[in-house]
Amino acid sequence: MENRTSAKGNKYIRATLKDEKGAEFTDVAIFDKFPDFANIISGSTLEGNLVSKDYQGKTSYTLNSPNSAPTGGFGGAGGVKMMEKKAESIAKSQDRKEEGIKHSSVFRASYETALAEAGVHGFDSDAYKTSFEKWRKYYGEAWDFTEPF
Asked: 114 and which of 81, 119, 132, 143 could share a cystine (Cβ 3.0–4.6 Å)?
């Protein structure tokens, strides 16, 4: 067990720990925010969350306080609810995206078809508008698209 100070000025202990199954972890950092940090001595029994990180190709370990949530502070149930809400939002976004693609495709195809048809018969804005409406209805039905307005 060795007392150290980080580059940021935080005090920590570098220690070798054994878990309840007997697995040994060397060079574990225990920072001064850990409960009862000042009274940690060699041979102490500590309870906490061992977190591993890959740092410059080497695995490093930090012992966090037992009440710190490894999920980033959301806790177990909060994290599940957050993930469910995220999945729901993604599904809604996908539905909106698909509707947006259908909407733009119907209008693009109607525009191009009406423009081609107007070019054959000579361009007349009223005839073009009528043609556009006809093709918009046709493509909307063909692609199962209901206009939102």
From this structure: 132
Q: Residue 76 has what pLDDT?
A: 52
Cα–chain center distance at 108: 33
- Taking the whole predicted model, whether its pTM rises above 0.85 is answered as no
